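Re: beginner question about structure tokens

> Can someone show what the tokenized structure looks like for a real chain? I only ever see the sequence side.

Sure, here's an example I had lying around. Input first:
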Amino acid sequence: MFAYGQAAGLRFALLIFFSLALMTIDHRLHYLDNVRSVISIIVYPIQYIVSFPSSATSWMGENLRSREDLLVDNEKLDTQNAFLQAQMQKYVSLEIENMRLRRLLDASEKLTDRVLTAELLAVDLDPFSHKVMINKGLRHDVHKGQPILDASGVYGQVVQVNPIVSSVMLLTDPGHALPVQVNRNGLRTIAGGTGSTSVLNLLHIPNNADIKQGDFLVTSGLGGVFPAGYPVAKVSVVEPDPSQPFAVVKAEPLANLESSREVLLVWKEKSGQEKALVNIEDGGK
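And the corresponding structure tokens:
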């Protein structure tokens, strides 16, 4: 293709132009989405084979552990389970009280969101983006923009869906922004990714705002993507800057972005009013 000769430079220029044209068409018109979907089906067995040695090693390691190690682990798990059960009783009582107050205020009870467990298949090696691939796709009813959680908090959201697998952008990706609020006083702001898995930037917070180190941030529900009330991060830095209109505020994500192997896909349940609007748009069906 690149044989030496007078036409080699011309062929190279034509190939560059053709490549740029394809990338532009794909970016603007999305003509290659179907091709990606087909390729993802073909590549999925390869991804599974690549991850198989790690899974097999982990399985063998767990099955070859000594009985003593298992007894120690069981004792730790029993202690942790007792602690979590005690905590759960507290949360249950708070939830019941909250539901009772909602009835008194003639407000609708908060519905339980539908969730599905997914496993990580691969991590994007691009140092300028934070993305992972999970083993759930269109056949599991996954959709673009879907919220992703782990056991500790908000993990990210789906940015690309294929028939078998999906791509997830972590909330620390430089291109990700999430509406949040301070759990203590309801102060609303935007948590933007920084490219570091341990830092989020809280945008446009005035110097005199009521926010302090240690405050917990939860999803505000604004934007219609993430349901309200899910834990996101804890404020780690608050530095007012009199020379600027906004303070420098940073937070540490609660999710285990670098160690979680399983995540939760969340489907936001529609309220009665939203369902009524959908029925009207569908002609009352």
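Each token stands for a local structural state, so reading them left to right follows the chain. The mean pLDDT is 81.
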